[in-house]
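Contributing new records

If you add data, match the layout below exactly. Sequence lines come first and carry their own label; structure lines follow with theirs. Keep one chain per record. Anything else will be rejected by the validation script.
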Amino acid sequence: MFMRYEDANWQKAMRLKVDYNNMLAGYSKAAAAITPQEIAALKDKAAEAFQFIAQNRGKGTMEWSELPYNQDAVVADILQEAKAIREKCDTFVVLGIGGSALGPIAVQQALNHLNYNELPAEKRGGPRVYVLDNIDPERISGILDIIDPKKTVFNVITKSGSTSETMSQYLIFREILKGALGEDYAGHIVATTDAENGYLVKIAAQEGFKAFVIPAGVGGRFSEMCPVGLLAAAVAGIDIREMLAGAAAMDKIASNTDIMQNPACLGGLLQYIAMQKGMNITVMMPYADSLRYMADWYAQLWAESLGKQYALDGKTEVFTGQTPVKALGVTDQHSQVQLYTEGPFDKVVTFLAVEKFRCDVTIPHGHEDIPAVGFLGGHTMAELLEAEMNATEYALYKAKRLSCKVTLPEVNAFTIGELLYFFEMQVSFVGALLGIDTFNQPGVEEGKVATYALLGRPGFEEKKAELDARPAKDPAFILE
């Protein structure tokens, strides 16, 4: 059957639009606006960064860049398992943290009904989907009040199988399932983990769990388009082939060697220059509730990828990075935009816009005797939302602040695949410009190891002794 994402004209109509005018001198009046001379001065450096990515794509920690192309068998397996899950259960629960959770949350929010889990089953068309992305005991207990374990499948996602948060969740729900289903409990757990290494792959084999593989070179924040994110999406009825097709389409666009015609690389270059000018904060501000959790996903992608102490040589200290901030239009016009227009000149705001919403609501006429209210009648909510976004963009322009805008023609699986891959390529390009390892996260490890020591994991006695040797806190500064 011919699918719409195979139509070149449809693909062209679904292409993202990226507007960088408000970052460039000649349009923007900001003191930090980027000049053609500044871009030209980095021509060679940008070419080297582009070549670095091209040479390393598909290899090592850039294995994620081939996900749009090399998963035909994996996708077929996912779709078969998703069909079986949809037939036997009414709830699907993801157990994961970080990239194992943020990607699935963002995609579910973007591509399903905004109240998907609350819809009646016949309107929903698939199991309810929950993502347990934290270990708050009230959250864990609360999920048990709304699910029937006998009709629930749990997807445990951790490459190492030693992620304390995820494995503690697994142990809790394993015990509950065993009590409810006895020997049949294994059919209600799906493991997504490394093919050979780590503990979860061994547990899955021992217990008889269905297992999917996280490719070795795919880090958590780049994992939405492998089984980490594709299984939950497929269970909820999202077209995962279309999402991968969108990613492939963006990959072709981002492979353009002319940086000025390559939206991902040009955006990365402009962010890099802005960082050198003191723009230490990047604000992601979607103007659509469907895209609100894209800001959460982006925050991890940007922070873990660019926040690094050392250069690629592992010795030179650079202490680089740009702090991501989540915002939502129009909500945060009333909480954050005051800071963005009148606070420090240290931010770049990225707007996420949608041209055509999946539905619209017309504002009724009324109170024409009160012009401040009556003027709204006859407009639609989409019109109002667009006007609010354009007004905020203008307010930042007038205040001489840097911003850019990424516009989706509509929100569908193809454009979400484009969007995810766009930012993955952009952050990779920025990391290459900075001369850092974009794909590791050594700064996360200290907290993990300290947690193991505090809870008595064997082999971490030395770290426990180090923690115990900390200076005692001064009670004078613990106030009650």
